[in-house]
Amino acid sequence: MVCSSMFLSSVFIDRLGQKVTMCIAMSMYVIFMAANLYPVWGTMVPAALLCGLAAGPLWASQSSFLSQLSRCYATNTNTKPKDSLSYFFGIFYMCVNASKISGNLLASIVLKQDERSNRSMTREEIEDCVANKQDAVDNATTLERPDDTMIYSICGTWIGLAIVGIIVLVFLTPMTADGDISKGRKRKPIFSKFLAAANHCWNSKLQKLMIPMTLYFGIASGFLTADFTKSIIGCTFGIHTVGDFMLCHGICNTVSASLLGHLVKHFGHLPFFTITFLCYGGVQAILIVWKPGTEHVYIFFIFAGMWGVADAILKTQVLAMYGHLFADNTEAAFGNYFVFEATGFIISFSYSTFVSTDIKLYILLVLLVCSAISYYTVEYIDRKYNTRRDVDNDGTSIS
């Protein structure tokens, strides 16, 4: 995904347009889902490679399309472009997060039919799991692979829904880079697209200030996927309960994303970013100093919900800020966003099996502090100049 975000996103969007890019990228996701029906090295690795190459163009094209569409909406309704961006990204990620609700509900219902779902862990085994002791995680009976029939049911449903999504995309009205209905595109040389993305990242002071938040979101998402669900939830309560906790995460995520667009219009970005930093920091700090047990199940639902709220705010508002701060160069800006988000994923998964959970939480807290400092700096600059801005070609001034 890092490579595709750096080198393919701008090229695909410029050459094929946002609509075709999304259709092709979604097709690669379908291939990856189908590979899970027969998960061996020969199917998963090539499918994962295709999915990773498609991920950058997919998310960049979606964000670019939404950014342009929101500016059209702002022009026609006489609203502030920044507020319109928050509104559109809020709606989009409400729909994205709604899939977490349906997906985790399906997984929870199907996996609970497994007779092995009633197995439990001792207190000592739970503490070893949460501490990410590899032997404890590998030998945990609560993490055994479900029956193949259940996996086929889940994967088949997801493949069908993805195909429906591609069919819907076929009927999407394409747009040009300036937000008008597409009637043709002026194509730039491929190499110039690479240079534009690299130049934007290198010269833009605001882009550099946005990196800590973007990187943090990737690492935090990796921790949620690889550690919170497996070492903490799955190992403690059983793999069949992961869907329940992530369902709570998805509900809070979806509701928060749907409300943000309206609330930001009245209160601005600042209070919601502050809430995000407090939610992330609170959950991570408590997990460091407190050792859970199966009797504390309700607390983990609270943690999952708080994490969902924080994810919704950070994802939607950071993307909205990218669209606002870099309105004249959205393709390069969103491409850079997904480069650093994917880099965070890579970092998180690269040390996942070698570093204890406590150390991972300390890393997240340190990066969270850096993210907060960088955000408040960007907010100060934005309010000070009170206009759209980007760095000029020599990178020394803000226009």
TrEMBL record:
Gene3D superfamilies: MFS general substrate transporter like domains
Pfam families: UNC-93
Transmembrane segments annotated in the record for this chain: 20-41, 87-111, 151-177, 270-290, 296-314, 334-353, 359-378
InterPro entries (alphabetical): Ion_channel_UNC-93, MFS_trans_sf, UNC-93_regulatory
Membrane topology note: Multi-pass membrane protein
Keyword flag NAD: no
Protein name stated in the entry: Protein unc-93-like A
Main location: membrane
Family annotation (PANTHER family): UNC-93 RELATED, UNC93-LIKE PROTEIN
Family to which the UniProt record says this protein belongs: Belongs to the unc-93 family.
GO molecular function: potassium channel regulator activity
Protein species of origin: Mizuhopecten yessoensis (Japanese scallop)
Subcellular location: Membrane
GO BP terms: regulation of muscle contraction; regulation of potassium ion transport
Keyword terms: Membrane, Transmembrane, Transmembrane helix
KW Transmembrane helix (keyword) present: yes
Gene Ontology, cellular component aspect: plasma membrane; striated muscle dense body
